[in-house]
Each structure stands twice: as C-alpha cells, then as structure tokens.
C-alpha cells in the first residue's frame, strides 16, 4: 500500500522513505507555515521600529488583532490547502461563515495559533534535524591549522564527511514524522472525527465489502445454474433437432421448418453463451486475469494491444474488479470513443495491481453519463483501490485502475 | 471411444448419437477422474470430453485431456466446450503437436453430420478448431490478415479448421487448383513456409494467428 499521509510514510523503511516524495512534501509543508507568520512578525517589527507609547501600543495591538481576525478565514483556507501536501485524504467542506458555527471558530483559532506560535516549532525541528549531518558534511571545509579549536587529519575529515552523507537521508524521519504529527493536529481541528460516525463508517465499509462478495457469489451461482441447466438443454435440443433432420428427406414439407428451428436454436445458444460470459467469465476463475484479459481483448472490435506483466494468480475480488473494469472500458472504447486502436496494460508492483486502458479516440468520456464507470469506481473502492479517468474532449482517453493486492 | 460429459442428458444423447453413426462408445463417464481411469484401462481410439466437469467444475475435463495427451501423445482427443475461449483452444493445440486434437463448441453437436465428420477427422490425426474460435483469432490479427481478400480469408478460416484442400474445394464449389492457389497466396502474405502437409499447414496458420 502506498501511504496516504506523511505520518504513515514515516513508518516505511529508510531506503523507501528517502526515495519517496514524502520528505520533500513534509519540508514544503513545514516551510509554507512561515507564510502566515509574516503577520505577527510584521507587528513585532512595527513595535520595534516605532517604539510607541502605551496607548498607541494598545491601539496598534487592537488593529493587529482586527487584521488577524479578518485574515483568519484566508489563513484557514491556506492551512487547508497546505494540508494536502502531507495528507492525501480529502477534508470535509469548509464551515459556513456564521458566528454561531463552532467549526469556524476552531478554524480561526487554529490559523491564529499557527501564525503566532507553531512555525517556531517547525523551524526548530528542521534546524535540529539538519544541523548534525550538515555539520559533519562541512568537516572538509573547517579550518584545520594549528590555531583551530579542533584539528583533524584529512582521513578523519573524510570519515566525518561520509558519516554526514549517511546521516543526511535519515533526517527524512524527524521531518516527515513532525510534519505528519502537525498534519494530524490540523486534521483533528479542521475535520474533527465523530467517534460514532467513525464506527458507523467502518460498519458501512464492511457491509459494502460483504455486499460485493455476495453479489459476486450470486453471479457465479447464476452462471453455474445457466450452464448446467438451460445451456445443456439447448445443446440436447439442437442434437434432437439435428437427428430429426437427418431422418427427413430434403424435400419433406417439414424440412424447411426444421432447418429454421435449428437456426433459431443456434442463435439462442450463441446469445445465452454471451450472456453467461457477461455474468461471470469462467476463464477468469480457471486461468486468472491475464488469460481473461487476453480473451476479452481478442473480442474487441477495435484492435487492442496487450501489455501484460502478470504472473500467478491474484486475490479473486481483485481479479474480478480488474476484469470488469477492462471489459467495461473496452465496451466504451468500441461504442463511444471512435478510436482506431487501444492498449491494455496491467502489471503488479509494490503490492498494487495497476491496469490501464488507453485509446486514441475523441475522449470526452463522462462517468456521470451512465457509462458504468461510477459503478466500477465503487467496486474498486470496496477492495481499497481507486479508479482514475482522464478523457479530455478531443482525446486521448486513459482509464487507470489501482488495486491493492497483498499476495 | 471413451466419452466424458457430466450432464446425464447430454451424455446419453451423445452416446446414442455416436452409436447411431456406428461408433463404439466403450465408456461414458461423468467426471475427470473416471475419464482418466477409463482412458488408461480401455485404450480407446479417441476420447471425447467436456471442459467443465466434477469434482471442481472448472476445467478438469480439459486438464484430464492434456494429462492423457502427455501420457499417450498419439491419442486423439476432441474437446467439447461451452466457451469460445482462445486460451482453452490454444492449450489443446499446443498439446496436440502430434496432431489429432479438436476443440469444438457444443453448439456444433446440432450439426450432426458436421460433428461426426469433425470427430472422424480428429480420429484420423487432424486438427479441428471451432469456426467461432477461428473467427476470433482472425479478428484479432488485423495487420497482414487485413491484406487478404475476402475469399482468401474464407479459405484461411477453413484451413484453420483443419480441412484438406479437397474438402475446401467442395465447400466453396471451386477446383482444388484454385484452392491451392488461394493457399499459396495466403501463406505468402502471412510470410509462412509453404507446406504440403495439411496438418502442419494448420499448425503454422494457428501459430501465426496466436502470435
């Protein structure tokens, strides 16, 4: 799973954290905290420069208070924007600007506190984290003649320098962890969790998973019943009709009718076969995602290029979700996109299955226009994944499904 | 022959149909394990099996067929399926390097004469692939296949079904020489080695379509 917050990222191993974007995002988060600090700093600078009398000072402070209160909503908006740097989870909508709105006062209070106090802490954490490695890295630059306080041999300086190099990536931890903690505080203030609601939400998520599972096993049951029932009976019927036809001479009055009946039976069989495949593709259960994708691509009227890097089987819910996503995307591609070619790419890395379907069509796919994409996004969400669609007018269209699959 | 089909209705229907055409069905069984047992015990000339059978109701029939094929590479096997799936068909053909394999949709059973003919061809060591599967393979390979004339595509479809030049000539009501010319044209366009042997020709075409 990719972490969605800096706090979660701070728990990943060093080589992964140092290579990820999280330390940089955290640094940016902490440094952008200096922007609101400009207001109180300007006030302090004003007091220092003007040296006002007591009454003037009180007046100045009052003015400053009004300015900060007026800037509060702006600062709060800025805080919300900043939070996206280290917390990918969406925030609820902003509280309305009403005096009786507790959420609003929380936001304002948080913004004023952040502007006046918190940034000092942020700077301190950055400074304290970076100071030891930077000091070690500077070893070769330190004066080393006899008059120096600490003289070191060149070999020793190299050792110190290397130690600094090793320490430097580790500073990602305190910075990321602190930014994550600050973000957690910000989220607690800006989007307080209702404990009852959280429990209910967990229950809703679980029931959603149960519903999808029930839905899938129901589909499998229907598929099995159709296969063992109607489909076999139709085969038997066509066999009986075939044998009957063999007993009739070609000029028999019933021969033409019988031929019609056989034709209709064949059509019914073909339709039922397609229906059953739509309900649940047997090849998916038997041979897994790669084989099922090959077959669904082979059926596409628009040429589809496959780039599959899948080995072995994935959890069944993941396979089913990915299969139906591709199936739906290829249907849309053939129906609406006007594309001349498409590509289906699927691969697993970092415990995530990523499936992309792209085409060179006219774009403009809209999930709200009943293309079945909304249902697919919901399905992806039940297995903890997500579905992304980029389809500007004029094309090209890219549908990307990411599904976690811990093997 | 040994017949494996889990639906009692179809098993009895198929048995009587095959007997009607003078084939000797020595065993008709309903699951993959019994199929393997009977095929080893009775050494049939040909095995006809369903794909989906007990115990697991997935593709045990096909797997049993492939296993039998591994033990007796010359044993002709005809697989009857409800699925137009290239994967199943190609697995079977790959096992059928020594020829004598068929993958037919169960729908074809209604075309009684065709079906019995296909079974005879499999028993004779030919490869038979259901036209529906062939059509899908043809649809998939658009590049050079697109350069074929409609007539050539028709001929290619029949070749992929494992038919001989004579049979294709009869089917299209043309001379055998015309068929041979079409096939030469197809092989040239698809960049395949011209090959006199019917069966090897089919494999070459199928290998091309799958690539």
Automatic annotation (TrEMBL), chain A:
Protein name: histidine kinase
Catalyses which reaction(s): ATP + protein L-histidine = ADP + protein N-phospho-L-histidine
Keyword Transferase tagged: yes
Gene3D superfamilies reported in the protein's UniProt record: 1.20.5.1930, Histidine kinase-like ATPase, C-terminal domain (3.30.565.10)
A GO molecular-function descriptor: kinase activity
Membrane-crossing residue ranges in chain numbering: 28-47, 54-76, 108-137, 158-181
Database matches in PANTHER family: NITRATE/NITRITE SENSOR PROTEIN NARX-RELATED, NITRATE_NITRITE SENSOR PROTEIN NARQ
InterPro entries xrefs: HATPase_C_sf, Put_sensor_dom, Sensor_HK_TwoCompSys, Sig_transdc_His_kin_sub3_dim/P
EC number: 2.7.13.3
Pfam families xref list: HisKA_3 (PF07730), Sensor (PF13796)
Residue span(s) of domain Signal transduction histidine kinase subgroup 3 dimerisation and phosphoacceptor: 218-282
Enzyme class: transferase
Keywords: ATP-binding, Kinase, Membrane, Nucleotide-binding, Phosphoprotein, Transferase, Transmembrane, Transmembrane helix, Two-component regulatory system
Coiled-coil intervals, chain numbering: none
Automatic annotation (TrEMBL), chain B:
Annotated keywords: DNA-binding, Phosphoprotein, Transcription, Transcription regulation
Pfam families: GerE (PF00196), Response_reg (PF00072)
Alphabetized CDD domains for the sequence: LuxR_C_like, REC_NarL-like
Modified residues (4-aspartylphosphate): 50
PROSITE patterns tied to this protein: HTH_LUXR_2, RESPONSE_REGULATORY
Domain Response regulatory: 1-121
Glycosyltransferase is among the record's keywords: no
Cross-referenced Gene3D superfamilies: 3.40.50.2300
Residue intervals of the HTH luxR-type domain: 141-211
Name this polypeptide is given: Response regulator
Taxonomic lineage from the root: Bacteria, Bacillati, Actinomycetota, Actinomycetes, Micromonosporales
